[in-house]
Structure formats: C-alpha cells, structure tokens
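User: Could you go from structure to sequence for me? I need the amino acid at each position, not a summary. Structure tokens:
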C-alpha cells in the first residue's frame, strides 16, 4: 500500500506543497543523518575485519596460554610419576622406611640418604603417592572433568559461530589434548589395576598362610595324637593276619574291621611293642572298637587264635582233601563235593576242564572258621593259579610238547610214583621216552586211582580195569591228574633229566629207593627185587 492511498491531498493543494516544502526542509535536515548512517556502516564494515582479527588473536593467545598451563601441569605430573617410580625402584620398599605425611621418617625405620628423604617428603606432601593432602587426587579429577567440559563447550561454540580460523588453529591442539587425556586415563587405569592386583595378592597370601597354618596345626596334631578308641571294646569279629603282612597291613586290616580307629594309632603302639615281630599269621578273634594298645595285646595272646590251621601234603587226591577239610572245619564232606562241581565259581583255569583234581594246591592253610566250603576250595585253587603264573606254566608247557593240563597230569604221576624229590626228573624222562616210543606208561598208581585204592599190591586183574585213568590201557596219558602235585613235581615235568631209560622200579618202598633200566631184562630183575620186599612186608606198608 502506498503513501498516496493513506494520505490524500488537501483540496487547495497548499497543504501538500507546504508540507512538501516543509518536507524538503526535513529532508535537508535529515539527509546528513542518512549520509552519516551510511558512513558509520561503512566504517563499521571496515572495522569488522580488524575486530575479527583482534578477537581471533586474543582467543588464540588465551588458548595458547591455557594449553601451555595444561602442558606444564601434565609435564609436572609425568615428572612426579617418573620420580615416584624411580624412587620406589631405588629401594624405598626394600629399606622399608616409613614416613609421615610431612615427609619425616618415623621411628623404627632404617635411615635413608637425606636427599631421598627430602624427595620422599616432597612427593608425600604433593600427594603423589596417593595419600598426601586430603582432596588433592579428587581435585585433579575435577580439573580434568572441567577441562573436558570446556573443550566440548568451545567446540560447540565454534561450530555455531563458524569461525574457520579458530577451527584451523585449534584442531591440532584438540588432537594433542585428546591424546593427552587418553594417556592420562590409561595411566590411571593402569595404576588402578596395579593397586587392585597388589591388594588381591596380599589378600590371597593372607588366606593361604592362614589356611596353611590351620591345616598344618591339624596335620601336626593328627601325627602326634592320632584318633584312637578307648577301652577293651565289645562284640566279636574274626580278622586274618596273612603270611608276610607288615605292621601297616595288619593295621589296615584292623581298621577295615573297625577293631581300631586309625592305622596310625595302631602303628604307634606296634612300633613300641618288642614282641610285635613274633606275631604269627592266622585268624584272630578280636573285639570291635578296641584301643590300639588293647588290640596289640590281644593279638599276642595265644587264646585269641581262632583259625583252623591245616597242612595238606602233596599227592593227596581230591576226596582225601575233602575229608581232611571236613574234619578240621566240621563242614560236611558233601558240601565240599558240591562246591567242587562248580569249577567256574572256584576260578579253575580253562585247561583243568572243570575238574578240581590236581588243582587243590598242597601246603599250609589257615582257614577262616566262618568260611563256607566253596570259599575254602577257592582259596586253594587261587594258590595254584598263583604258583602256575610264577612258574610260567602255560608258555613252558610248549617246550615239552604238552598242553598245561597234560603237564599237571604228568606231574601228578611223578608225585604218586616218585620215591624222593631227586627221582622226579628221572621218572619224568622215563615217561617222556615211553610216550615218544608210543608205549603205554603202565603205572600201578593209575590203576589204584581208578580203583580208588591205596596199596602196594597190584594184581594182573587190577590192571585190566576199564577206566580212562588206567595207563595200562590208555595212551599217552590218563585223562586227568590223579592227585595234587607240588612245585617240585611241576618243575620236573617241565624239566626232565637226560637219559634213555624206559623202565623204573622203586625196589625199596620203605626208603623210596628207585632203580632205572633200558631193557626188559633189567625191568624183570628190578621187579623181582620189589617182590622180595613185598613178601617181607605182607601188610604192604612203606
């Protein structure tokens, strides 16, 4: 909208020309102001670059001053940290010198050099060690926080003002300050981790030392005063002391049956008992929860022997073994016969073919008075298996051309025929020579086994008995063993003597004297000699 529309001219026109004249006067008076305003703007425009340059120089100067202060502070801080590290390495911790917060050495410490003490005092007073004047470390963190806030505010201000020169001048300084802040932050984290590691190590050391002390005391107390029962105990229990058992083995057996409370308590008594070495293997009637001293005394008392000691000689047949065991243990013979039929439960080797004959190893046994027939027979079979392993029976039987079962059978023949142990290898050679020649063994002992007899008088009729054990009729060996051979007979069966004999006769059964020959004439002569002895001894006893 124009001025013409707002202000109409008067009718006479004078008012307009008058105001126009007057207006020109105002225009004349106002023109210098308009000119003067334009000059002011031109001068201000000319002044602005100067003021901008001056502002930028002042800002740059202030920034340089501030950056210099920060740099000096960082240099001082780094120098203090370096001096702290050097000081600690030079022996502060090694000499264990203690100072108060003013750097003065405390009593009881080792005096250091004055220069080190003064340096330590300066560090301690400046709070460099982390325990100087209160609030210094917090003040440092606060200053750094404000420094970061100032940098962020300054960057935001420059972004709004658009001062390119400030950005260019301070961009490099900003990068340096960022690097410095990251370095200080990393150093603080490293120090924090170091302090935490030290504290953790100290706590762990205290825990280990404390726990070790408690455990060490408990261990020492257990060594000096091992746990033990008191009194004579009560109830009854059978324990076995095996042949060759040491004091530790006996103590372990007693503890297992709850006779004594601990192995160490019994060993302590056992070590001071002069008669401990005279303790015999066997079964003992003990009481439960006895003191170790009472248990040792009862073991040495002959009345405590509860076992059934029995000696089974070599050459016994299985039924003869059953009778002796039954007489000793009061277990019926039929129980042993029934147990013998279960070869697998007894642990018989495979080459025994399920028969106990020849595998009830002879020797001395201390029988458990509470054991059933099966356990007693198993004890004897287990002993045979152990002796066979020691002899390496399975592998060595191959060297004589027999299997392990045949070796046991041949050894049982040697045990039955041999007059003395020295004759076993020679009789073994006679049997191997006859087997090699394809001749029957013709042994009277096999006939007597088939007839279930024990006698020296064997008739021609007896030799005609039908049995797989009759060596007059079967070759090369009977079907199985005829008795329980001992170790000497087993060794002889694997190691026969050298010779070409085909015959042997025990011409004097009373002494076991045996003669050997290679011809039928020699055999006839030796047989006549035996007949004369039998005629003189009609009872047929040796």
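Assistant: Here is the amino acid at each position, in order:
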């Amino acid at each position: 909208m124009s001025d013409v529309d707002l202000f109409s001219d008067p009718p006479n026109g004078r008012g307009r020309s008058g105001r126009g004249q007057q207006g020109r006067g105002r225009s004349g008076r106002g023109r210098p102001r308009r000119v003067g305003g334009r000059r002011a703007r031109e001068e201000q425009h000319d002044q602005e670059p100067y003021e901008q340059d001056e502002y930028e120089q002042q800002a740059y100067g202030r920034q340089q001053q501030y950056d210099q202060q920060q740099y000096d502070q960082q240099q001082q801080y780094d120098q203090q940290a370096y001096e702290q590290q050097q000081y600690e390495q030079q022996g502060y911790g090694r000499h264990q010198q203690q100072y108060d917060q003013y750097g003065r050495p405390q009593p009881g410490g080792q005096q250091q050099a004055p220069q080190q003490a003064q340096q330590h005092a300066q560090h301690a007073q400046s709070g460099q060690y982390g325990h100087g004047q209160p609030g210094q470390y917090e003040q440092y963190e606060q200053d750094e926080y404000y420094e970061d806030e100032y940098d962020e505010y300054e960057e935001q201000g420059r972004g709004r003002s658009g001062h390119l020169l400030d950005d260019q001048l301070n961009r490099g300084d900003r990068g340096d300050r960022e690097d410095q802040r990251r370095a200080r932050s990393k150093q603080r984290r490293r120090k924090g981790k170091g302090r935490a590691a030290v504290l953790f190590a100290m706590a762990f050391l205290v825990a280990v030392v404390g726990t070790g002390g408690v455990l060490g005391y408990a261990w020492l107390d257990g060594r000096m005063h091992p746990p033990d029962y008191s009194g004579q105990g009560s109830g009854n229990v059978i324990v076995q002391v095996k042949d060759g058992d040491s004091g530790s083995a006996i103590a372990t057996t007693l503890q297992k049956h709850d006779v004594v409370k601990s192995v160490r308590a019994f060993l302590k008594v056992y070590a001071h008992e002069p008669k401990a070495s005279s303790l015999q293997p066997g079964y003992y009637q003990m009481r439960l929860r006895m003191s170790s001293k009472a248990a040792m005394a009862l073991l040495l008392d002959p009345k405590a022997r509860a076992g059934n000691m029995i000696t089974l000689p070599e050459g016994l047949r299985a039924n003869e073994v059953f009778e002796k065991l039954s007489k000793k243990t009061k277990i019926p013979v039929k129980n042993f016969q029934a147990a013998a039929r279960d070869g697998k439960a007894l642990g018989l080797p495979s080459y025994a073919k399920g028969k106990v004959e020849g595998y009830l190893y002879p020797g001395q046994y201390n029988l458990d008075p509470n054991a059933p027939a099966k356990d007693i027979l198993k004890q004897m079979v287990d002993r045979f298996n152990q002796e066979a392993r020691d002899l390496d029976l399975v592998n060595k039987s191959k060297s004589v051309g027999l299997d392990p079962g045949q070796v046991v059978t041949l050894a049982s023949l040697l045990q039955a025929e041999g007059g003395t142990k020295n004759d076993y290898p020679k009789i073994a050679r006679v049997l191997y020579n006859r087997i090699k020649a394809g001749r029957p063994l013709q042994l009277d002992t096999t006939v007597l086994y088939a007839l279930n007899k024990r006698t020296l008088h064997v008739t021609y009729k007896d030799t005609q008995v039908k049995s797989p054990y009759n060596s007059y009729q079967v070759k090369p060996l009977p079907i199985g063993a005829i008795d329980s051979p001992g170790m000497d007979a087993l060794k002889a069966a694997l190691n026969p003597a050298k010779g070409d004999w085909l015959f042997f006769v025990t011409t004097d059964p009373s002494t076991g004297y045996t003669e050997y020959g290679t011809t039928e004439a020699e055999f006839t002569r030796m047989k006549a000699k035996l007949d004369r002895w039998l005629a003189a001894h009609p009872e047929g006893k040796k």
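One structural detail worth keeping in mind: The mean pLDDT is 77.
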